[in-house]
């Protein structure tokens, strides 16, 4: 339906938007719009009046003002690599029946790099890999790293509070941001681009927008923390028997290596097998299969030879104690990249294998083995023949726990009824004091499910914030709350 308060018909509305962003900033052809209306997994397909691609914060503000005036909903979009449907529009907007996709991809400038302050100020459309490269060019590190870093954009990363593979040492996005620039739902611009590490002048407003998935405003720029670029890296793939051994080894490595431990990635044999099956050019680095694997990476100043020697000694001791069955230590950057390709290709390999019911969950690190054991046992009892692909950032308790049937025909029926599977997984997470969304957000996928696992008070506080900032529910409606 079209809102009664709207004064511009579709043609006039399009002309008004084009007057702001130019014809190059408007996509109206259905074929050209299609990639913006479908998520990476192909699970969600939405509808929109236009795709709008502003080139500046001022253009974003003017577009938002026009949409607010006409009661047209706005779906902010970055690289559209999310897995929960948060970056694509609904099939029909729940508030007015009219909506646009606001793509930030043209806003891709690095505004400033201050090496002495260890900060970089970037626009929301900057691809994550480009930010990493700019930091390296200044002999600095921007540590956020994930499999989609060649296409995901920093605005989307911040909107979902992305974690990635270096959280163990550097934290989530919330820990990497000093300041934000945000266009509010009425078109006003909040300039919070402060490069300060100490600012005790009231509420930390930026944290409202990080992890909000575009439901409270449009992030247009950010001041991000940089770190000294490590000169030494040591990377190893380990074969182990169980997640319990992984937790024990993590504790031992952190006791001896401290913050040198950057990444600690757990992978089941099935997860690795799918990569070997579907990703060309990959091979098993170990001589035989093991039930579970760990990808461990350390970084430090100094020489890589010294750090490799320390990791090798730790692994030899772990082998003697039975913590590890086998291990391979990368001897070159090419070997390191080959090991990381195995881990980073797991989402792509699963996509090629077929649809699965994905769960991005977290529990306290010490309870990861218990979660995997309990949830797997309950699923196998309820659904004989179920196939579980588990992998993730065990160093921060974040497991990607994916469920399907090996037989394609059985799986086609199985994935159509996700609720019983989700209930088993999420109830297990809740019993262990965990979260049903660790780093991908809620989006459309978990918007209703979260009502079972958050308290009524928490949900009401979230809704109150939403009503205060976005009283007409125009910012990414149908997502999160």
Description:
It is a single chain. This protein has helices spanning 10-21, 30-37, 57-70, 128-137, 154-159, 167-170, 173-176, 206-209, 243-257, 269-278, 304-321, 333-344, 346-353, 368-382, 408-414, 419-431, 450-453, 456-469; strands at 26-27, 50-52, 73-77, 99-103, 110-114, 119-123, 140-141, 177-183, 189-192, 218-225, 227-228, 232-240, 261-268, 292-300, 326-329, 357-362, 386-393, 398-405. It is α+β, with helices and mostly antiparallel strands and 481 residues long. It has a seven-stranded antiparallel β-sheet, sandwiched between helices. Strands 5-6-10-8-9 form a five-stranded antiparallel β-sheet. Strand 8 and strand 9 (189-192) form a beta hairpin. Helix 10 crosses helix 13. Mean pLDDT is 94; it is low at 1-5.
Quick structural summary:
The protein has 481 residues and is of the alpha+beta class.
For the biggest β-sheet, the strand order reads: 15-12-14-13-17-18-16
| Beta fraction | 15-25%
| Count of separate DSSP helical elements | 18
What is the CATH topology descriptor of the domain at 110-228?
A: Uridine Diphospho-n-acetylenolpyruvylglucosamine Reductase, domain 3
What composes the largest sheet? 7 strands, antiparallel
- Count of DSSP E strands? 18
Q: List low-confidence stretches.
A: 1-5
Distance between the termini: 22 Å
Question: What attributes characterize this protein structure?
Answer:
Alpha-Beta Plaits; alpha+beta; seven-stranded antiparallel beta sheet; 481 residues; 18 strands; Uridine Diphospho-n-acetylenolpyruvylglucosamine Reductase, domain 3
């Amino acid at each position: 339906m079209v809102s009664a308060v709207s004064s511009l018909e579709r043609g006039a509305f399009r002309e008004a938007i084009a007057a702001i962003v130019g014809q190059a900033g408007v996509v109206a052809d259905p074929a050209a719009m299609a990639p913006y209306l479908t998520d990476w997994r192909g699970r969600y397909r939405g509808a929109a009046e236009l795709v709008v691609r502003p080139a500046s914060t001022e253009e974003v503000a003017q577009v938002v003002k026009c949409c607010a005036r006409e009661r047209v909903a706005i779906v902010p979009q970055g690289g559209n690599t999310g897995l929960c449907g948060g970056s694509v529009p609904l099939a029909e907007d729940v508030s007015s029946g009219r909506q646009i996709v606001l793509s930030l991809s043209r806003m891709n400038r690095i505004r400033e790099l201050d090496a002495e302050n260890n900060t970089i100020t970037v626009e929301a459309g900057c691809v994550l890999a480009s930010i990493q490269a700019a930091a390296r060019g200044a002999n600095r590190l921007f540590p956020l790293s994930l499999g989609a870093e060649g296409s995901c954009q920093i605005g989307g990363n911040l909107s979902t509070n992305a974690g990635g593979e270096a959280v163990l040492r550097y934290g989530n996005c919330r820990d990497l941001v000093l300041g934000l620039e945000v266009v509010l739902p009425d078109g006003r611009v909040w300039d919070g681009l402060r490069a300060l590490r100490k600012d005790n002048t009231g509420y930390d407003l930026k944290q409202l927008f990080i992890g909000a998935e575009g439901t409270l405003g449009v992030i247009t720029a950010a001041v991000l923390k940089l770190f000294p670029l490590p000169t030494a890296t040591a990377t190893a793939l380990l074969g182990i028997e169980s997640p319990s051994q992984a937790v024990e080894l993590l504790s031992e490595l952190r006791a001896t290596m401290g913050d040198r431990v950057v990444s600690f990635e757990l992978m089941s044999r099935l997860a690795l097998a799918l990569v070997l099956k579907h990703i060309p050019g990959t091979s098993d680095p170990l001589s035989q299969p093991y039930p579970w694997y760990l990808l461990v990476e350390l970084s430090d100043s100094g020489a890589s030879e010294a750090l490799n020697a320390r990791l090798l000694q730790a692994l030899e001791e772990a082998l003697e104690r039975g913590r590890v069955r086998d291990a391979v230590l990368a001897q070159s950057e090419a070997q390191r990249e080959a090991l990381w390709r195995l881990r980073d290709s797991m989402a792509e390999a699963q996509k090629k294998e077929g649809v699965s019911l994905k769960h991005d969950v977290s529990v306290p690190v010490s309870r990861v083995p218990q979660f995997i054991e309990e949830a797997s046992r309950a699923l196998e009892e309820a659904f004989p023949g179920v196939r579980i692909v588990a992998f993730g950032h065990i160093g921060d308790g974040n497991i990607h726990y994916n469920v399907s049937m090996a037989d394609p025909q059985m799986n086609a029926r199985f994935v159509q009824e996700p609720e019983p599977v989700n209930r088993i997984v999420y109830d297990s997470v809740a019993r262990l004091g965990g979260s049903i969304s660790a780093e991908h957000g809620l989006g459309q996928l978990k918007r209703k499910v979260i009502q079972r696992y958050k308290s009524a008070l928490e949900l009401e506080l979230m809704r109150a914030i939403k009503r205060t900032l976005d009283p007409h529910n125009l910012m990414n409606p149908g997502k999160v709350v």
